[in-house]
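User: Design a sequence. Structure:
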């Protein structure tokens, strides 16, 4: 009976992680090499005035540096390898602390699905080590480097958790914050502290560790992170629906997410974004593309693919991509490659309710030429706009405020990022709370001062 088949299919999928936790799973496709950056030192651009670049190689050395800066009440910019220096508000600090020398995996227990690494360890090293044991990061971290003018692959694991910028798999697996087990860090008082651990028993400590995610280095300098990992899928496929208008595409994506078939990626690329794909076969189609990804054991993927196609048959017959092509396509998307760096454009990252995404884009397009890329079944919109004096901030924020959500300016010229709100403006009560947290961790306001908000 159909009900029994559906139950069987979802049981297969739900058992997958449990059954693979204690063995090395070999994908039925070759995992390509991960991006290796062209630079191995922090990215410092000529127009940025930096008089002191400090690269502590040990926690005690970092403590000593911050203690000296605290005594002098001297602000400092905190970076990993510099992949995110062009995102957020530009720093005016003349001193830079780089965690690039705090590098290396300190613990890896594949059977326990846990890893610890120093904060400056490049993301590509983490992912290569995990792939060698048939595992991966669950939340598909986004590499903002190519979209902001930095090399691909220069992101550090500390930067991943400091920004909490999670990729397409977030709709299925959760965000980077959800997979962080513990941290070691040095605060603005030059105090070394540890929060959380290898298992989720210390709830208070875990909450403190997770509160650092998304703080962009403004509260403490991460020195080590401990996080959960998951098995690589044995097989994956992507269903590609063609030429759906934005609102209908989002309807299809949300319908897919409402099924029991465990969709791990739900993206819509309007025509312009689709034409920029690295997959030349798809780019050459010359039309909007709506993408749904399924992963796990091959038998489970086949079953869920067929059931999902049946559930979405009113949206047409999709193209189907195999495992290798799927891996390449979604690797392309996690680098935001369909919104490539250009000094002629600015890039916004808008989080909203999935059904509101197309409405927000349409409202903004009334005032400027704008190109969108929808992720998280429409709940995340990457929006490319002309490089105006304010990057279109007034129109973008008005459209978002009316429909709900928040907007972050990811790419713009430094003078623009210095003059407008890069992150969503805080309401008075949230600003008071944020200031209190900042004062508790960094009473002198040394760490990445002004990186998120101009006043602190």
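Assistant: Done.
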């Amino acid at each position: 009976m159909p009900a029994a088949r559906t139950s069987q299919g979802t049981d297969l999928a739900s058992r997958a992680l449990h059954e693979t936790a204690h063995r090395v799973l070999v994908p039925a496709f070759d995992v390509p090499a991960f991006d290796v950056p062209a630079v191995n030192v922090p990215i410092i651009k000529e127009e940025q005035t930096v008089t002191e670049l400090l690269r502590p190689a040990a926690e005690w050395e970092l403590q000593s540096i911050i203690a000296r800066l605290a005594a002098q009440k001297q602000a400092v910019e905190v970076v990993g390898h510099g992949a995110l220096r062009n995102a957020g508000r530009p720093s005016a600090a003349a001193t830079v602390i780089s965690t690039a020398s705090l590098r290396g995996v300190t613990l890896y227990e594949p059977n326990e699905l846990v890893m610890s690494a120093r904060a400056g360890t490049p993301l590509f090293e983490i992912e290569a080590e995990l792939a060698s044991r048939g595992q991966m990061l669950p939340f598909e971290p986004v590499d903002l480097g190519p979209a902001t003018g930095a090399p691909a692959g220069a992101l550090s694991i500390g930067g991943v958790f400091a920004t909490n910028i999670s990729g397409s798999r977030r709709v299925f697996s959760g965000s980077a914050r959800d997979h962080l087990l513990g941290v070691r860090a040095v605060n603005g008082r030059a105090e070394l502290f540890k929060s959380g651990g290898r298992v989720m028993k210390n709830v208070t400590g875990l909450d403190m560790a997770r509160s650092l995610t998304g703080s962009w280095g403004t509260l403490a300098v991460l020195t080590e992170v401990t996080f959960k990992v998951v098995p690589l899928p044995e097989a994956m496929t992507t269903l590609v629906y063609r030429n759906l208008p934005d609102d209908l595409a989002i309807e299809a994506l949300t319908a897919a997410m409402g099924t029991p078939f465990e969709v791990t990626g739900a993206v819509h690329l309007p025509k312009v974004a689709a034409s920029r794909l690295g997959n030349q076969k798809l780019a050459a189609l010359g039309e909007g593309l709506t993408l749904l990804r399924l992963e796990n054991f091959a038998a489970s993927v086949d079953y869920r693919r067929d059931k999902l196609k049946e559930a979405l048959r009113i949206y047409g017959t999709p193209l189907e991509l195999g495992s290798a092509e799927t891996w390449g396509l979604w690797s392309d998307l996690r680098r935001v490659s369909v919104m490539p760096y250009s000094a002629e454009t600015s890039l916004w990252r808008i989080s909203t309710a999935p059904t509101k995404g197309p409405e927000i884009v349409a409202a903004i397009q009334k005032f400027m030429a704008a190109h969108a890329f929808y992720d998280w079944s429409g709940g995340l919109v990457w929006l490319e706009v002309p490089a105006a004096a304010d990057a279109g901030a007034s129109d973008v924020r008005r459209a978002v405020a009316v429909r709900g959500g928040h907007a972050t300016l990811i790419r713009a010229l430094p003078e623009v990022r210095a003059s407008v709100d890069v992150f969503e403006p805080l309401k008075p009560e949230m600003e008071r709370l944020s200031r209190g947290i900042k004062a508790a961790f960094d009473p002198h306001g040394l760490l990445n001062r002004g990186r998120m908000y101009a006043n602190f």
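Residues 274 and 282 are 7 Å apart (CA to CA). The chain is about 35% helix and 20% strand.
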